[in-house]
Amino acid sequence: MASAAEQLAANLNFGAFQKATELHKRIMFTIIAMVVYRLGTYIPIPGIDTVQFARMFEGQNQGILGMFNMFSGGAVQRMAIFALNVMPYISASIIVQLLGTVYPPWEKLRKEGGEAGRKTLNQYTRYLTVVLALVQSAGIAFGMMKSGVVVQGIAPGFFFASTVVTLTGGTLFLMWLGEQITSRGVGNGISLIIFAGIVAVLPRSIYQLLQQVQVGSVNGAAVLGLLALAVGIILFIVFMERSQRRLLIQYPKQQRGGRTVGGESSFLPLKINTSGVIPPIFASSLLLLPATAAGFIQADSLPGWLQWLPAAVASLQHGQPLFMVLYGLLIVFFCFFYTSVVFNPDDTAENLRKYGGFLPGIRPGKRTAEYLDFVLTRLTVIGAAYIAAVCLIPEFLTSFMGSPQQTRALGGTSILIVVSVTMDTVAQIQSHLLAHQYEGLIKKSKLRGGRK
Question: Quick one: residue 273, left, alpha or beta (phi over 0 = left, psi -120 to 50 = alpha)?
Fold first, then answer.
């Protein structure tokens, strides 16, 4: 029996679209889900003095809160019910993937469990998402109570409980909505939610840049150069994300009965950027944590031996030389680290040997694994340099233009996510169109098995 959540999702494909094609239904479902998400980013949690919170946020938007606000489409700035967004789910997914490579029971589920093992790991990811969302929402509730942004007259216990329930429930709803988009809509639901949040911030960032040009605080030629550079970055990202190293795989010929079968060849595609957008997100999160924590500490209350802390934290702000150096090094480190997690050369070589495939000129087994590791290492060097270059460009612009919020929204990680999600969504739409054309060809050709 279907759950209430599944029935609700099924009912969203209401009768007005019954005559539409399957692709139209999926696109319409995705649009409706995105509208629901955007509406939720404007509903504040109960008991918050929005004016006072906006003032407090202005002093924290240079830290990790500013990055989360960009990913959530401004929900953090408004402290909406979707302020946590899907970040707990992403963190839980990464933790489960890491444990799936080092924890033997989960490693067995990942390798030998098949579809049932994958569903079990997905369920563990959901449970861990609940735990992370509870911890993060409790920390936010406690921080707001200490900051004095709670409306006068509300009991602290009631505010704490309602905030934790609201923020955790918002994250779980977005997790469910993302899964429904993946199964009933077009594209990866979780990625599309982050994509919608970033795209929603772009018009406001462009408008703020134009305002700065109007008052003379920013040179108009610099803004035109920024927009031209953003277009160039998009083209560069598309080229690099579509680039692959194809390794030829040969299958031996076999004699079965009176026939010779096998002998086919295929390709093993290795992407240049295997790690995706995880490295810049992890690197920026680690570097912005000190600035966020220091924002809640009064400099006058620090002891004498910690008076150096404000200057050290200031050097880790966007556009500072130390921040850019550490940012680039962390991106390179996480590119290699996450690539080693998501792609195991030993497992790939073993699967090739099991099904009879081999790389021409290379012995199956250990030699194949060593060759795959060698090729993947060289590709990761190129991919890490590409990701570091794309993400460091807005940091140089921040140092030059002095507008971190606008340059952060128009380059680097945000454009990388937007372009990657767009390419994935377009590819899925094309696959649906090809399947529809294939069905039409079968109908017209009157082949056996085709519909009349």
Answer: beta
Note the residue count of the chain.
Answer: 452
Query: What was the pLDDT predicted at 172?
Result: 93
- 413-445 vs 366-401: helix crossing angle, rounded to 10: 130
Judge contact between 108 and 67, C-beta under 8 A. no
Answer whether residue 201 shows pLDDT above 50: yes
Q: What is the mean pLDDT of the chain?
A: 78
Residue 433 tokens read as: 């169109």
- Within 13 Å, how many C-alpha atoms sit on residue 40's CB side? 24
Whether the predicted pLDDT of 62 surpasses 60: no
What tokens appear for 414 in the block? 């945000």
d(CA 313, CA 445): 70
pLDDT in tens, 119-150: 888 899 999 999 988 988 888 888 788 777 78
Amino acid at the residue 161: A
Identify each DSSP E strand in 77-154 by its residue range: none
Residue 192 tokens read as 């599309």
On the question of a common fold for 1-185 and 219-297+305-452, the answer reads yes
Q: How confident is the model at residue 256 (pLDDT cuts 50, 70, 90)?
A: low
19, 20, 26, 31 alpha-carbon torsion, rounded to 10°: -100
Query: Which amino acid is it at 172?
Result: L
Q: What kind of fold does domain 219-297+305-452 have according to CATH? A: Preprotein translocase SecY subunit (1.10.3370)
Distances (CA, A) of 124 to 109, 152, 166, 196: 12, 40, 22, 27
Taking the domain 1-185, which CATH number applies?
1.10.3370.10
Domain ranges of the chain: 1-185, 219-297+305-452
Q: What is the largest CA-CA distance in the chain?
A: 89
**Tokens 């093992």 label which residue?**
117
* 260, β-bridge pairs: 255
